[in-house]
Specification:
Family: Belongs to the DprA/Smf family.
Helix content: 40-55%
Number of helices: 18
Largest sheet: 9 strands, mixed
Order of helices and strands: HHHHHEHEHEHEHEHEHEHEHEHHHHEEH
Number of domains: 3
Structural class: alpha/beta
Protein name: DNA-processing protein DprA
Strand order of the largest sheet: 1-2-6-5-4-3-7-8-9
CATH class of the largest domain: Alpha Beta
Shape: elongated
InterPro entries: DprA (IPR003488), DrpA_SLOG (IPR057666)
CATH architecture of the largest domain: 3-Layer(aba) Sandwich
Organism: Nocardia halotolerans
CATH topology of the largest domain: Rossmann fold
Length: about 400
């Protein structure tokens, strides 16, 4: 019986009912624990329920006998679903509306014979209120060194903060250093952030980031292709990197040593046709040597600001036609325009921060803000000043 192709884009019949299919997806996710191109091909040809039956009964082509041998007799699908439900999470399958199918098309076009991690994930386990499909519609992956410098942390925070303020989702891997700085910056301005793990979503990794991951689960999203309870293994990080690259419109590297794992994420971005970008550092910094090499060898584009990132990762800018919605601040000039432009689309800023961002002195910023408030363009609360239009439904 035919089934919906796993990333194939084909429109075919579904085998089994909704519950049966979900249990089949979850069973197979536990059996292979990660990407498995031969299994994805089998599902695309016979359907997920029939593929699960074939795995259980060991009626498989030679390419699948090895990958499924160790765990094919372990069927913990119902228990896994209970576990993820108890965590307030969910499993996202290719049958679900939340599945980011158009993002996965890039992986589906890669040659799995060349790299076994190139396969589309069977399912994604998730914790958090964001919809994965919606969150990945406009997203940038921000990655870099775990042993980051103060310079790297500052740059990563500033760029991620600005991206989140512009309405972009910040995707990263919740690791020490640059990853953590990017997540925290997005959270600080009330922006969207997605953490992609190389272990089960119930396993904080690294353990020291349990509070950070809890904060992401509260307002953002934690995702993994690995079932609950699975601990992180070295090879799983390389597979995880392809998902970080897949879920973003581009990959930004802020600090990377010569042997940094961030370069692996850049490799995936280039194979997927996504722009790869890198921030330069001090010329003698070992922490930025990998970025400099990627820039020099044409593997990544040099960027220094969020605006540079948006120029590379964002959609083409089309001319505004007559009748299009007018910019409510188009009439502003001088200091008023500069202060308004310094306010993020999401989140708030204090007057001192606005002064630093706009280049104006603090007294001028404080003098301008009441006029913008009277014009109903800005408002203020305990967190600072914000754009009122951005907060209206």
């Amino acid at each position: 019986m035919n089934a919906a192709g796993v990333g194939s884009g084909a429109t075919v019949d579904l085998d089994g009912d909704v519950d049966e299919r979900r249990l089949a997806w979850v069973y197979l996710s536990r059996v292979v624990q990660g990407p498995c191109a031969p299994l994805s091909a089998l599902i695309a040809s016979v359907g997920v329920c029939e593929a699960a039956r074939a795995v259980r009964e060991h009626e498989l082509p030679a390419a699948l006998r090895g990958p499924t041998a160790a765990r094919r007799e372990i069927d913990s699908a119902a228990r896994d679903l209970e576990t993820i439900d108890s965590l307030g999470g969910r499993v996202i399958t290719p049958d679900d509306e939340e599945w980011p199918g158009w993002r996965m098309l890039g992986l589906d076009q890669l040659d799995a014979d060349r790299d076994r991690e190139a396969a589309v994930p069977l399912v994604l386990w998730a914790r958090g209120p964001l919809s994965l499909r919606t969150a990945s519609e406009r997203a940038v992956a921000v990655v870099g060194s775990r042993c980051s410098s103060g310079y790297g942390m500052q740059v990563a925070s500033e760029i991620a903060c600005d991206l989140a303020g512009r309405g972009w989702t910040v995707v990263s891997g919740a690791a020490f250093g640059i990853d953590a700085a990017a997540h925290r910056a997005a959270l600080a301005v009330g922006g969207a952030t997605v953490a992609v793990l190389a272990c089960g979503v119930d396993r904080p990794y690294p353990a020291q980031h349990d509070r950070l991951l809890a904060a992401i689960a509260d307002s953002g999203l934690i995702v993994s292709e690995y079932p609950p309870g699975l601990t992180a293994q070295k090879h799983q990080f390389l597979a995880r990197n392809r998902l970080i690259a897949t879920l973003g419109d581009g990959v930004l590297v802020v600090e990377a040593g010569m042997r940094s794992g961030a370069r692996n994420t850049v490799k995936w971005a280039r194979r997927l046709g996504r722009p790869a970008m890198a921030v330069p550092g001090p010329v003698g910094s070992a922490s930025s040597a990998g970025c400099h090499r990627m820039i020099r060898e044409g593997e990544a584009l040099l960027v220094t600001t969020a605006a540079d990132v948006v120029d590379e990762a964002g959609p083409l800018r089309l001319p505004v036609h007559e009748g299009a919605a007018a910019d409510p601040a188009a009439h502003l000039r001088g200091a008023e325009a500069e202060v308004y432009a310094a306010l993020p689309a999401i989140g708030s800023r204090l007057p001192r921060e606005l002064a630093q961002q706009s280049g104006l002195d603090l007294a001028t910023v404080r003098a301008v803000l009441p006029g913008l408030e009277l014009a109903e363009l800005v408002g203020c609360d305990s967190d600072g000043w914000f754009r009122t239009r951005a907060r209206r439904p």
